[in-house]
Write a structure and sequence with these properties.
With about 210 residues, the protein is mostly beta strands. Helix content is about 0%, strand content about 35%.
Amino acid sequence: VSVGLSSPLYSQVVLNEIVSKNEGVVVDDFQNYSDWIELYNAAMDSILLSAYFLSDDINDPFKWQLPNDYILAKSHVVLFASDENQGFHTNFKISSQGEALYLSLLGVGVVDSFPPVPLLADQSFGRYPDGGMQMGILQVASPNASNNSISHAFSALYFTPSEVFHQHPFGLKILASNPTATIRYTTNGEIPTVNSALYSDSLFLS
């Protein structure tokens, strides 16, 4: 599987962990098992959350403003992606089939993001250690606590050529940022599995 290594920009507050199919990890204040997004403050001081915004749409990065509260230094805060749009509940949900998330800072724009990652029930995707650059599926979901080690590390994929439309047959090359990554693919639009074809050198597309 593959996703990217991400380096947060301009911000000490980062996306730290998500669960997009919460069935038993944590109950929200409405007594529902809502999906959740955890932020981490890597700074030595408390930071006002209302300067930040969350979104699942890159064309609308300021979709939901965080509440007028503080996140303490070296600590976490959990936000519920419930579509309730009140308190610590966002005005959107996140898909367990994989949906990108964006954290934006007022006056700056997008400062951090998570790639779209399909997740199983109660499986979490996040950074290890907290606020770090390495991302992947974590051993155990840990809302409001430090992340444990990564069970499946992820890597960004780069495609050459990168153009969308081609008039003639061509060879497609795929490069992973992690040289140890295994790339599998399908040609029918389905999500690849461990049994899908293994990419080796290039794909000839006609």
